[in-house]
């Protein structure tokens, strides 16, 4: 028989429903449905409302998922900027804050500031419970231990467990971690692309990575390293040293850090890929040429993934997406030349719908899928005092 959590899952998916409809969908008796709904109303996850009367008699009470019954905390850590948000239970940001700080010095330098910012943001939502915390990091992660793992760009973070930093908040809630490209993929699929089961999301920024959704499921890989295509070898980078310490990596010619480095060597005043994008928008021919070439190199390498996965949509996210037209002009040039006609015949290439908010929205989706799952809600009803 459908549990309280199963009934909640239906209400969350349907948005507005009735007890009678839930009975039809679950096969449960009216008494059983009423008891499960009562438990959900008691803990605040479901709200009841009575629509205006119609001429047909007494209207049925509507049941709605109450997205304002709690919040989740989201932290999207980037190389030079960390975005923090408090989101409601529908994954919609209520309050946000940015920390413009390099991650190179390690978590002890950044994480205490992250926790302090979260504590400040929480001051306005103290009357609702916190259900969970989501984190995203660049590069490979160990989701079980909650840490960066063997990342070529976060050496000071390697194997440092991040959950203990949140102990000072005293929340005692689940804390989930994932790679930033995976988070972006989840964030992008939460919008208009929700109907699609096969997406390839490129994060083209300081570094390069991909989030892969195949068959409606986020693919993390056997060692949670799926999508790390930035260190694929390419003839265009032969002999060039990558920041990972190897040579010949795609990032050495197409990563944002490589473009910044080359412009700095040419005497240009740039510190981050965002500065390069500003030059692109100003019509700077050198910056435009570099960004287009970056897209062309990425297209050459990612064509194999398009052939292998046959995605319906290729989403371009990250700082390069702010120079979308220039970057994608290069990407299309090589992608369609190197991928098969069958794989690209119906392929759409689109910019990230949520811009630089995608990772935050994705961390929210990641946490909500866990803490609002049917088993989690069943456990909540069994152990949590009613409001």
TrEMBL record:
InterPro entries: ATPase_NBD, ROK, WH-like_DNA-bd_sf, WH_DNA-bd_sf
Endpoints of the signal sequence: none
Entry annotated with the keyword Transferase: yes
Keywords in alphabetical order: Kinase, Transferase
Protein name as annotated: Sugar kinase
Gene Ontology MF terms in the entry: kinase activity
Family under the similarity heading: Belongs to the ROK (NagC/XylR) family.
SUPFAM superfamilies, A to Z: Actin-like ATPase domain, Winged helix' DNA-binding domain
Source organism (scientific name): Mycolicibacterium grossiae
């Amino acid at each position: 028989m459908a549990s309280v959590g199963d009934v909640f899952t239906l209400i969350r998916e349907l948005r507005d429903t009735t007890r009678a409809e839930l009975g039809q969908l679950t096969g449960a008796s009216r008494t059983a449905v009423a008891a499960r709904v009562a438990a959900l109303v008691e803990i605040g996850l479901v709200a009841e409302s009575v629509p205006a009367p119609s001429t047909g008699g007494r209207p049925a009470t509507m049941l709605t998922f109450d997205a304002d019954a709690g919040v989740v905390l989201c932290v999207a850590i980037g190389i030079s900027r960390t975005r923090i948000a408090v989101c409601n239970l529908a994954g919609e940001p209520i309050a946000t804050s940015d920390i413009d700080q390099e991650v190179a010095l390690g978590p002890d330098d950044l994480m205490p500031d992250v926790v302090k910012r979260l504590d400040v943001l929480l001051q306005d939502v103290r009357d609702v419970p916190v259900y969970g915390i989501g984190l995203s990091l660049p590069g490979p992660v160990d989701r079980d231990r909650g840490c960066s793992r063997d990342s070529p760009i976060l050496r000071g973070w390697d194997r440092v467990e991040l959950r203990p930093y949140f102990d000072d908040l005293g929340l005692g809630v689940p804390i989930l971690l994932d790679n930033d490209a995976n988070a972006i993929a989840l964030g992008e699929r939460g919008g208009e692309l929700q109907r699609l089961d096969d997406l390839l999301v490129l994060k083209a920024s300081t570094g390069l990575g991909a989030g892969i959704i195949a068959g409606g499921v986020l693919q993390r890989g056997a060692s949670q390293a799926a999508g790390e295509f930035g260190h694929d070898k390419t003839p265009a980078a032969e002999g060039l040293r990558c920041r990972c310490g190897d040579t010949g990596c795609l990032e050495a010619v197409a990563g944002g850090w490589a473009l910044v480095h080359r412009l700095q060597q040419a005497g240009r005043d740039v510190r981050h890929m965002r500065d390069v994008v500003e030059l692109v928008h100003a019509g700077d021919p050198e910056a435009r040429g570099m960004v287009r070439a970056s897209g062309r190199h990425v297209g050459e390498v990612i064509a194999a993934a398009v052939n292998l996965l046959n995605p319906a949509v290729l989403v371009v996210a990250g700082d390069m997406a702010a120079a979308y037209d220039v970057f994608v002009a290069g990407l299309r040039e090589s992608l369609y030349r190197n991928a098969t006609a069958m794989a690209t015949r119906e392929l759409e290439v689109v910019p990230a719908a949520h811009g630089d908010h995608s990772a935050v929205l994705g961390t929210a989706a990641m946490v909500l899928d866990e803490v609002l799952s049917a088993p989690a809600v069943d456990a909540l009803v069994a152990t949590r005092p009613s409001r």
